[in-house]
Sequence to fold (396 residues):
Amino acid sequence: MDARHLLLAFILLTHSLTSGMWWVAGSWLGLSRRAARHWMLASMANGLALLLTMVPDNIPEPARVTVAGTLVVLGAVSLRRGLQFFLKLRHTDGMHVALGAGVAVFNLFVCLPAGWHDLGIVLSGLTMCWVLGRTAWETFTPLRTEFNTTTAWSQSCMLGSAMLVFAMAALTYVAPQWPWPWQYWALENTQFAVVFSSVALSILSSFVLGYIVVMRLVRRLEHLSHHDALTGLLNRRAIEYLLDREDQRLQRFNDPFSVLLVDIDHFKRINDRLGHAAGDSVLCMVSRTLQAQAREVDRVARYGGEEFCILLPHTLHEGALQAAERLREAISQINIPWGDESITVSISTGLACAHEPGEALQSLLKRADEALYQAKAEGRNRVVSAPDLPVRSKSA
Fold:
C-alpha cells in the first residue's frame, strides 16, 4: 500500500469518526441538534475536499483543487453557523447563504468552464480566511465568558492557524515559481499543502469543539447535582456542604453565621385541594421570592419537600431576625392566580445562630428545627429564634 492509499484511509477514518461523533452528540447526548448538524456537515465537506485532492490524476489537478476549495468554504460556513447556534450568537444566515452560494456558483459555473482555476482558488482562500477570522472574532468573548480565557485563545489560535495555512497553500499554488519562505519547510507541492491545511483544520476544530461540548455537559451535570430540578435553588447536599464550610470558618476564626429553616404553612392542603401542579407553582414562587429577598452573600436551598434552608454568613441574631421577618413579610404578599381563585401562602421560620466554636453543626440544625416546630405550634406565619447556647467561660 503506497502513501496515497494510506492517506486516503486516514482521511476516510478521521472524517467518518468526526461526522459520526457529531451525529451522536446531536441525537443522544443532548447537544444542540442544529449545532451538531452543522459541525457534521463541516466535517463531511472537509473530508470530501481532502478526498478530491487524492483522487487519480485523470482529473486535472486545478479542477480538483477548485472544487475542493469550494467545499472547504462551505465547511467553514457550516462551522461558523454551528458555533452561532451553540453559543446563542446572532445568526448571519443571509451572509452565509451569499458567501456559500456565491463561491460555489462562481467556482463551478464560471471559473471551471472558463479555465480560471487560479482565480477560483484565490477567491476560495480569501473567503475562507474571512469566514475563519469573523468566527474567531465573534466567538472569543462568549467562549471566555462561559469557559475560560485559555479555551477562547485556543479556539482563536486554531482558526488563525488555519487561516495562515490556507493563505500559504493558495499563494504556493497560484505562484509556485516565487521563493515563498515556507516552501523550504513543509509545503513541497500543492497537493500536500491543501491536504495538510484541511487535515489541520478538521482535527484541530474537532478537538476544540469536542472540548467545549464536553465542558458544557460537565458543567450541566455539576449544576444538576447541586441544584433542585423544580425550583432551581441549591439542593440539600449543596447547602450541607456550605454549612459545613461555614462551621469550619467558625471553628477557626470565630466567624459567626445563622441558619433559617423555613416551612410553607398548610402546603399539604394546597396539594390536596388544588393538585400537585398548584403545589409546584407555589414552591417555585416561594423559591423565587426567597432568592430575590436574600442578600448576595446568603445561600437559599430547598431542604426537602416544602422546607427551605437559608444560610446567612457573618450574621448574628439581630441581623438574622430582621432578615427572617423581611422574608416572611415578602412571602405573605404572594398572590398566585389559579383557576377561579388566588393562592396566598405564609411561612414559619426557625432561626438559630452559631457563634460558639464548640457547637456541632448537627446541634445547630437541631436547634433551628425545634424553633421551626415551635413556630408551627404557636400558630404559624411567624419567626421563632432558638435559645442561644450559653457562652463558654474562658479559662485564665
